[in-house]
Amino acid sequence: MQSTANTEHDAWWSAGETPRKPKIAIIGLGYVGLPLALSFVEGGAEVVGLDVDTRKVDALLEGRSYLGTLDDAPVQAAMATGRLRPTSSAAAVAGADAFILCVPTPLTRQREPDMRFIHAAIRSISRYVGAGALVCLESTTYPGTTREVVAELIAQRTGLRPGADFCVAFSPEREDPGNAHFGTRTIPKLVGGMTARCTRRALSLYRVGIDNVVPVSSPEIAEMAKIFENVFRMVNIGLVNELKVACQRFSEGGVDIDVHEVIDAAATKPFGYMRFFPGPGLGGHCIPIDPYYLSWRAREFDAKTRLLEIAGEINAEMPRYVVERLIRGLSRQQKALYGSHLLVVGVAYKDDIDDVRESPALKIIRLLREGGAEVHYHDPHVEALSVADQAVPALADLNADSLADFDAVLLTARHRRVDYEPVLEHAPLIIDTRNIVGRDAVDPERLVKA
């Protein structure tokens, strides 16, 4: 497989015309669509950003970012070019050379693929997809979606033939919010088209905004590659979470083993090992959800995904395990979960961001409330929080006076903006799920690793 970095643009969108940059319609301006739009604008393209959320559109028109990991400056720079047009009107995408779908792909309550956002996006744009257009799906989904859902639905609504009259491709998003080393432009981009021509056109398009575009032989290869990336992480996190539980059981039995020291020791091997860290469970838009797209589709072909499912079960149990460790810690101090006052520090699903989607902290808060505890939270990135449609009170500052009201503090994210020293000094009990507290930093009777 060869990279296509630094190759000449094949501007199929202006064939026979005066050379021009493409007009791109991006459907969905969330954590994937907005950074992608900015990258294309930076490359000189004209971008129409379509989103049903008028608050997002209004924010962009005012030069404001609504993503916690994206500053206002890139938005203002893009708007100043006149080549970024945010809108909630589908008619604005008329005349686009390419349509890129960046919409959510959640699971139903039965853990089956929820395609309603993809269907809605196709309904909104299909009348504007003309002969020669390119349609790309970026939303993570099961292998076969691009060909069997996107291409077929557009064909049914337009009468055009996919792969012949219009091109279709899959190019999975690989966003990593908060990553200071890789951004939309510098993360290598996979592209797989329904035909070789579709792939070439998608490659040419993405080269406008992405430094390194990598072709694969089909949409299904690209779809499975994205799923595999997330399955790989899910399984390894499940493995290290299981190791964490085992090490804690060893320690309780008199054989003291610190899982984090084990991880550091193993990492001295310069080959055949990759470092993963345990935590309170999985969170975010990808890892807790995407692997189940694979297991759902695999059942259709009588293929087993046992390792994936076991890892999912291990990770799903981590919030409950954290609560169990808390209960044991409270018991050592002759306290019960029922009626206790608890503080959860860090409710975003990962460090230094404001995204709480699928955050294990939310599951922990729900379990604590079900057990009769009163729960507050502290997170400088999250201004307001609701769990099960009930608001969670926020604690503005961590200090001796504010911490005096709590029986225990649970550390569920490691934010650089949080000063943990007051917790170490004043919390009567600390439940550390992120290895924030050194084993010798506080009295062992006040510290529970979870």
Question: What features would you describe in this structure?
Answer:
The protein is α/β, with parallel strands linked by helices and 450 residues long. It has 2 domains: 12-217, Rossmann fold (3-Layer(aba) Sandwich); 230-449, Rossmann fold (3-Layer(aba) Sandwich). It is 37% helix and 13% strand. The chain has 13 helices and 15 strands. It has helices at residues 33-42, 54-61, 72-81, 116-125, 145-158, 196-207, 219-252, 259-266, 290-300, 306-332, 360-370, 400-403, 421-426, and strands at 23-27, 46-50, 84-87, 98-101, 134-137, 167-170, 189-193, 213-215, 341-345, 374-378, 386-387, 390-391, 408-411, 430-432, 447-449. The strands form 3 sheets. An 8-stranded mixed sheet has the order 3-2-1-4-5-6-7-8, with helices on both faces. It has a 5-stranded parallel sheet with strand order 10-9-13-14-15, with helices on one face. α5 (145-158) links the parallel β5 (134-137) and β6 (167-170). α4 (116-125) packs parallel to α5 (145-158), α7 (219-252) crosses α9 (290-300) and α7 (219-252) runs parallel beside α10 (306-332). The radius of gyration is 24 Å and the shape is elongated.
Short description:
With 450 residues, the chain is of the alpha/beta class.
Please outline the helices and strands.
Blueprint lengths: L22 E5 L5 H10 L3 E5 L3 H8 L10 H10 L2 E4 L10 E4 L14 H10 L8 E4 L7 H14 L8 E4 L18 E5 L2 H12 L5 E3 L3 H34 L6 H8 L23 H11 L5 H27 L8 E5 L14 H11 L3 E5 L7 E2 L2 E2 L8 H4 L4 E4 L9 H6 L3 E3 L14 E3 L1
Parallel strand pairs: 1-2, 1-4, 2-3, 4-5, 5-6, 7-8, 9-10, 9-13, 13-14, 14-15
Antiparallel strand pairs: 6-7, 11-12
